[in-house]
């Protein structure tokens, strides 16, 4: 008997498959993507009776018909990699629907174990399963499990070991599809065997698949004779039964499942009203469902961005301390390129990434709890009708809502969407939700240019513009490059259950690690690049003699006979002002400053000058950097959104129309580098990340030019 086994974990979405996977593998997990697709692949290791088992958690899927990337990845793994055992996790409380995938696996001839999960829910409903007879009818061992309690895990592993020991030569289940279909299956099967393809004894299964739905993928390399036979048989079935072959075959499968369940599953005459039914009567109520959903999303929002604020402050303080400590390695007043690289580039770049980690962890803690309790499926159901009108799935609403806090965790949250088109469309438009990093820009500009009664309406207007643009952009994407049928809302509503601490911690931890490992490395590289662009070339000859001015201020202070505290404060402020002006001149000389001046003719139609351009380049690292960059350019020091000095300088140099255009451009334009990096990670391609970068920047430019020029013509602002 083998001492190392590959065990595939299959099952419908919401069947409890991931909970079983976490129970079996614990922290010994690795997360990646299947080759060539952006479908997540999880695997982990467990040991049982001296056998090492590599558990591969396949994507949740309802069938093997390759209608989605998840189904295609699952089918390809089962056929190409031939795992030693397949464990099909079945929601035993929804048996007939879940057995459809099991029957397909049986037809494939896979060495199979059926994990009847949520068996406690079955008993609670008063349903009795004749396990032994059901197992005999299906030709596979059945193991009752309760995933959220960890019950049945040892029995499941024992069944896996037993099937692996006896799996060789096992024949697949044969479903009788009726005289008409069986005749055509035989003809296609004969043509397949004559075609000389290496079928490994699976010619009947492949014949069924060809007639069912997978003709295009299987017939690419087929002979003309086989293609003719398949098309002829498909037409014959449709002519005899007045329905497409795939529908007829699916109907026969469900009929087979219904017969098996009728004989071996005994349901109480009056189904008992469960806790799930009672809760659903409230949370999916026609009137109450939306307010409840909005309330829960508000709590998630608060949890993620309010509770996350203190640890974010601790992380910022830690990196500030680390930067000061590293800077102390050099004598006071001595500047060094290495010092600047380490403090401003590496530590500043890494700190700018890790500071979002509390948000990531808290967000996925909330998502894990909502998913594991069973509420997330209801949330998607509640929002689907509204989201469907713009071509998105109901689940898209949750990432877009999270986007008001931060686009990075919002894009990571698109993993909850099954359809690749929905995932891509959602992650591309999510940055239009006005994230928290843009708020410092609004907080700086609105009080500087607009009277108090206008401030709240202006902020509200900016947020609403983002929402409207996101809706329109999603509609446009789903009508053009992501065109296709909207994903039908097919989702089991699992029973409510208490989430396990282990499952929640694993879910939260793996997302946090992925964020640090993948996005962090890319962002660090971009941070160092931006540091270099903002630091070099160094200006050797300045327009003013700043050292002489500093020496003069120092001499004047030392010459005063009575050195009061006020005099010392004025002296230190004078030195800071000289240093700020020197830094501003140095910045204008760097690559970033030169780019700002070079693109000024492009910025002028929006009403911007090179100084705003420099700040926008810096804002690519993180939107809130715009404020600090403007402070450097206008020589007001380390400015923040409450800097009155910077507000005064801006108000004296720009008009309210330009101020509004700055906010509009920052709202729509390329999101921060963290967002671009995580879009690359989640989409699996730079193509989509660059489309997001270029598309949003182009949209921002066009709309800002239009608003500025219209405002000038109408003499507004």
Secondary-structure blueprint of this entry?
Blueprint: E1 4-11, H1 17-25, E2 29-33, E3 40-48, E4 51-57, H2 69-81, E5 85-91, H3 95-108, E6 112-117, H4 119-124, E7 128-129, H5 131-138, E8 142-144, H6 153-166, H7 179-194, H8 203-212, H9 215-219, H10 224-241, H11 245-264, E9 265-266, H12 275-283, H13 289-305, H14 309-327, H15 337-354, H16 357-373, H17 375-388, H18 397-402, H19 407-412, H20 420-429, H21 439-449, H22 452-479, H23 501-535, H24 546-559, H25 565-589, H26 591-598, H27 600-603, H28 610-618, H29 625-633, H30 644-653, H31 656-668, H32 673-683, H33 686-714
Helix pairs in contact: 3-11, 5-11, 7-8, 7-10, 8-10, 13-16, 14-15, 15-23, 16-23, 20-22, 21-30, 21-31, 23-32, 24-25, 26-28, 28-29, 31-33, 32-33
Question: What does the model show?
Answer:
This protein has 717 residues and is of the alpha/beta class. Among the domains are: 4-166, 3-Layer(aba) Sandwich (Rossmann fold), CATH 3.40.50; 179-266, Helix Hairpins. It is built from 33 helices and nine strands. Strands 2-3-4-1-5-6-8 form a seven-stranded mixed β-sheet, with helices on both faces. The longest helix has 35 residues, at 501-535. The radius of gyration is 31 Å and the shape is elongated. It starts with a strand and ends with a helix.
Tags for this entry?
alpha/beta; Rossmann fold; Helix Hairpins; seven-stranded mixed β-sheet; two-stranded antiparallel sheet; 9 strands
Count of distinct strands: 9
Shape descriptor reads: elongated
- The CATH homologous superfamily of one domain is named P-loop containing nucleotide triphosphate hydrolases
Name of the level-1 CATH class of one domain: Alpha Beta
Q: β content, as a range?
A: 5-15%
How much helix, percentage-wise, in residues? Answer: 55-70%
Low-confidence stretches: 33-38
User: What is the average per-residue confidence, as pLDDT, rounded to a whole number?
Assistant: 80
Class by SSE composition:
alpha/beta
What do we call the CATH topology of one domain? Rossmann fold
Q: What is the alpha-carbon Rg in Å?
A: 31 Å
| Strand arrangement across the biggest beta sheet | 2-3-4-1-5-6-8
- What is the CA–CA distance across the termini? 81 Å
Known CATH architecture of one domain? 3-Layer(aba) Sandwich
The largest sheet, given as strand count, sense and whether it forms a barrel, is:
7 strands, mixed
Put simply, the count of helices is 33
